[in-house]
Amino acid sequence: MEQPIPPIIFTPDNEPYLGRTLLFHFDQLISSCLEQNAIIAPMSHRINLSDRQEMAALLIPQAISISLSIRELIRQGYLFGARVLFRPLVERITILQYVCLYPASIEIWKRGWNYDEAPSLSKMFDAIQAKNDSSPGIRGYKLTSAMNAIMHGRPESARWNIISLEEGYLGYATSKILNRPDLCDEICADVILWLVIVQAMMGKYFPLEN
Fold first, then answer.
1. Strands, DSSP E only, in the chain?
2. What would the pLDDT profile of 8-50 be if each residue is shown by its tens digit?
3. How many Å apart are CA 114 and CA 87, to the nearest integer?
4. For the chain, which residues make up each domain, given as ranges?
5. How far apart are the first and last CA of the chain?
6. Does the pTM of the predicted model rise above 0.90?
7. Buried b / exposed e across 170-198, counting CB within 10 Å, b at 16+?
8. How far apart are the C-alpha atoms of 85 and 106, rounded to whole Å?
C-alpha cells in the first residue's frame, strides 16, 4: 500500500505536529506576547522614549517576529531551519536583559553594538548570572555551545536534521522533517522559556503606569 503524499503546504488544521503539548503552549505564549505588544506599542508612540526604551522598541518586535517565524517553520516541518533561528532569538532577548541590568551599556548600543566593543552572548550570560547573584551554575560558553554548533555547521549539529530512511538507513534531511516529534518538542520547550522572558522585558521597559 502506497504511503499518502504529504501536502506541499500545511495549514493549522493538518500540520505535522498538531496536538503536541509543548507546541500548544508555544501558541499560547505567542498569542500572549502579541496581545501585550498591542498594548505597549501604541503607548511607546505617546511618550518620550529613553535610549533604553528606543532599543527595546526595536528588539522586542524583532524577537516576537523571529518567534513567529520559528512557529511557521515548525508548521511546515522545517525543524532544522526553526532551530537555526533560535540563536538570533536568544541574542535579542539577552541584550534586553543585559541592558536592563547594566543600564550604562546602552551607550555601547547607541554606538552600534559593534563586535569589538559589545559583550558576546556567552559573556552576557555570565554577567546576567553575576548580577542576579546566581550560583555558579553553567558558564556562558557552555550555554552557547549548542547554538554555535548549528549556526556554524559543526559536527554536533548533525542531530538536528538526521532522519530515518528506508531499509533502516539514516540520512540528513534537505527539506521537511515530518517524523521527529522529539525535535519539535525540544524546540518548543526552549522557545517557550525565552518568550516568558520577552514578556518580562516588556513590563520592565514599558511599565503600564506610564
1. 162-164, 170-172
2. 899 999 999 999 999 999 999 999 999 999 999 999 999 999 9
3. 18
4. 50-150+162-205
5. 64
6. yes
7. eeebeebbbebeebbebbbebbbebbeeb
8. 25
